[in-house]
Amino acid sequence: MSQDQDLTLRIRRYDPSTGRSWLQEYRVRAGGILRFTDLLRKINTEQDPTLAWNSSCEHGQCGSCAVRVNGKPLLACELLVENAVKEFGTKEFLIEPITVGPVVRDLVVDLEVAYRRVEGMKPFIIRPRENPYGEGEYRIDPKEMDPYVDATRCINCFCCATACISGPRSFVGPNAIMSCVVRLLDPREDAKAERFKLLHGPNGVAHCHTSKACSHVCPKEIDVAHFVRLAKSLRLKEKA
Ligand code: SF4
Ligand code: SF4
Ligand code: FES
User: Is 220 a pocket residue for ligand 1 (Cβ < 6 Å)?
Assistant: First the structure.
């Protein structure tokens, strides 16, 4: 049975009406199998209803609860108290918003700009290739999907983009690049030259420093850096 833990949570607050930002400390007693979203809810109901944070699915599928805990971007709904104590070796946690967009309030971030970066990489089929099966559905051989099927598990939580040392100013970000590479490998699309242009545009893959931080933090355990690397190597092949 999991033990109750006495935790200290230092949470980055932001009040948009005054522009004030500060760290607020909360002491929380919690069972080991509670998740960090449960801790934030506990604070709301027992101590401070004004603390703002995001969640939706509470099941690791929507990405809306992404925050930084002791510097590491992660999904708050997936982090159990007992695992956090083990992983970080402490019962004191600094909780901050992710860094890919402006903070709306406390831990809530406006993701519109971040989503626009993904949209700009056209994660949809730009121009469909003629369907070899005629009118029916376009079936993809599982072998053809193998090279990119992992990437399709991305939930756009922006944890990788938050961890990326290249930052969002000059670089579209690892998940945006990956969403473009997926369609580059997708046999249904007939717009490869346009894809290469997107990937190697001014905010494209050249900004990646191959730190692999994106792969390290991805809650879906996608090797994001592999796909970013792939975008670079496919370029080399195209040049050769
Ligand atoms: S690649 Fe992983 S970390 Fe990045 S947005 Fe997708 S799910 Fe989140
Ligand atoms: S490997 Fe590239 S894309 Fe991934 S975190 Fe490092 S710099 Fe960013
Ligand atoms: S609330 Fe949906 S991923 Fe955490």
Answer: yes
Could you check whether 4-109 and 112-239 share the same CATH topology?
Answer: no
- Residues 194-207: tens digit of each pLDDT: 999 999 999 999 99
pTM for the structure as a whole: 0.95
Does residue 140 contact residue 132 with C-beta atoms inside 8 Å? no
pLDDT digits (tens, 9 = 90+) for 54-78: 999 999 999 999 999 999 999 999 9
Query: How far lies 105's CA from each of 11, 28, 108, 115, 161, in Å?
Result: 12, 22, 5, 19, 20
Residue 1 is predicted with a pLDDT of 61
222 in contact with ligand 1, CB cutoff 6 A: yes
Q: Which CATH superfamily is domain 112-239 in?
A: Alpha-helical ferredoxin (1.10.1060.10)
What number does CATH give the domain 4-109?
3.10.20.30
Domain boundaries, the chain: 4-109, 112-239
Tokens, residue 153: 């598990």
Q: Which atom of ligand 3 is nearest to the CA of 76?
A: 4
